[in-house]
Design brief:
Structural class of chain A: alpha/beta
Strand order of the largest sheet of chain A: 5-6-7-3-8-9
Distance between the termini of chain B: 25 Å
Distance between the termini of chain A: 37 Å
Number of domains of chain A: 1
Largest interface: A-B, 31 and 26 residues
CATH class of chain A: Alpha Beta
Oligomer: heterodimer
CATH architecture of chain A: 3-Layer(aba) Sandwich
Helix content of chain A: 25-40%
Largest sheet of chain A: 6 strands, mixed
Order of helices and strands of chain A: EEEHEHEHHHEHEHEEH
Shape of chain B: globular
CATH topology of chain A: Rossmann fold
Strand content of chain B: under 5%
CATH superfamily of chain A: P-loop containing nucleotide triphosphate hydrolases
Radius of gyration of chain A: 17 Å
Structural class of chain B: mainly alpha
Helix content of chain B: over 70%
Largest sheet of chain B: 2 strands, antiparallel
């Protein structure tokens, strides 16, 4: 889990889409063991920042570096990154096992062991051979999280990972994230749900209109601090 | 790694299609309907209009190919799985190649029904020189799909993708369609001009090399926002 790069550094990163500035001169660093809460209202630039860290979106200016990465090419960096977004990145026509096997092979992971372990972790071993079309949103979300973790990424980027999950599933996912962070993974969690972020994230980075408003350590009282930074809310 | 990734993407696309036959059945239905409608217009008293068969065959291939391209990438849009493919540590051009192979396989499967149907309805000797005809179809389909796969992938996020795909695709693939039609026409002459057919096949091979190389080269920068 801890092989790969040791931190992610964003320095003066900007991204413009035409005349619209989605992200403007944002700088922060994610270290091993961090669960960084990327917080902000709709349109703040959270998903664009996640996209840039995932190498899907190229910054207009500024740099994103991955110190400790064995190589600087996109494919080598992507090998150490796991992404879970609101969209699940799964093929609904295929079974849970087929989905995980496909992605395990794509990431060059020894697929039999990894797939069985992922199905176990998602609590879906008994539904492994069912098409995921027949799964509930919560089951799909758990499977999607395990898909993102198949290759043991150093950096896990999560964009609204709790969407559609019931309380029990939220608890399980939160515990999984804490375990990963204590194992040395870096986690960036973009969410609107401040109650869920409270007690889970170790740092809060607040963005609004593409600009960084705050970046500090936090353990509790996320909502109060967020309100104080953003105002109202 | 490159070939392995391309084959993995192809295998995945085949596995999905085998679960539903959705794209193959709709593409086949569309192609058959297209040829049947043209046959009503161009076949009178059992006699087809001169040179109609070649044009209609390639129009049906192009139209049904556009349908297959649109549906294949619609699948990747649902659940944003194209993004998941781009996030993998695999070479991104290999993902393009895998998708291209899948589209070519789908279009070729359609042509297996389409060619005998055109031959029958238009009384065209499409099987007179099977090797040359197969080469024309294979190279023409590859050239068309090479450009189509790149554009369909680029347009996945566009709201008007269904309209934009044919608007962008048809003008650029005109050389492929012309070479396919002229090559097939030459094959359908009472005495087929093999030298002319080989010339059109060579041109198609040239287009394929150019289109596939350009697409492999531009896929990664075009897919990075």
């Amino acid at each position: 889990m801890t092989a790969g790069f040791s931190s992610v550094r964003l320095v003066d990163v900007s991204r413009h889409f035409g005349r619209r500035r989605a992200v403007s001169r944002v700088s922060f660093t994610v270290e091993r063991g961090d669960i960084l809460g990327l917080l902000g209202p709709n349109g703040a630039g959270k998903s664009t920042l996640i996209g840039m860290m995932a190498t899907l979106v190229a910054p207009t200016s500024g740099t994103i570096s991955y110190p400790g990465a064995s190589a600087s090419t996109g494919a080598d960096i992507r090998d150490r990154i796991g992404v879970l977004a609101h969209e699940l990145f799964l093929y609904p026509e295929l079974t849970a096992r087929q989905n995980l096997t496909f992605f395990a092979r794509l990431y060059g992971v020894a697929h039999h062991l990894a797939v069985d372990a992922a199905l176990e972790a998602a609590g879906l071993s008994d539904r492994a051979d069912d098409p995921i079309l027949s799964f509930s949103r919560g089951m799909r979300q758990r499977l999607a999280l395990e898909r993102a973790l198949l290759h043991g990424p150093s950096l896990l980027l999560l964009d609204e990972p709790f969407t559609g999950l019931d309380d029990r599933a939220v608890g399980l996912v939160s515990k999984r994230l804490r375990d990963l962070a204590s194992g040395g993974a870096m986690i960036v969690l973009a969410t609107h749900d401040l109650d869920l972020a409270d007690g889970l994230i170790s740092r809060m980075t607040v963005v609004q209109n593409g600009r960084l408003l705050a970046d500090s350590a936090v353990s509790e009282g996320v909502r109060q601090r967020y309100r104080a930074i953003i105002g109202g809310g | 790694m490159f070939v392995r990734t391309a084959l993995l993407v192809l295998k995945k696309d085949v596995a999905i299609e085998l679960r539903s036959y959705e794209i193959l059945s709709t593409t086949l239905f569309f192609a058959v309907a297209c040829v049947a409608i043209f046959s009503f217009a161009f076949v009178k008293e059992g006699q087809a209009a001169e040179d109609a068969a070649a044009g209609i065959l390639w129009i049906a291939i192009a139209f049904s190919g556009t349908l297959a391209l649109g549906r294949t990438f619609e699948r990747e849009r649902y659940g944003e799985t194209l993004k998941a493919l781009l996030l993998a540590p695999a070479p991104r051009p290999a993902i393009y190649l895998g998708k291209l192979l899948g589209i070519v396989a789908l279009m070729f499967a359609t042509e297996v029904l389409l060619v005998p149907m055109v031959a029958f309805l238009f009384n065209a000797a499409l099987f007179g020189r099977p090797l040359l005809m197969t080469l024309l179809l294979l190279l023409g389909t590859t050239g068309y799909a090479a450009v189509g796969t790149l554009f369909a992938a680029m347009l996945v996020r566009a709201r008007t993708r269904d309209v934009l795909l044919p608007i962008l695709l048809y003008p650029i693939t005109i050389p492929v369609i012309i070479a396919g039609v002229r090559g097939t026409s030459a094959l359908l002459e009472p005495t087929p001009d093999e030298a002319l057919v080989v010339l059109w096949i060579s041109l198609l091979a040239f287009f394929d090399v150019v289109f596939v190389t350009l697409s492999l080269w531009t896929f990664e920068p075009l897919m990075t926002e």
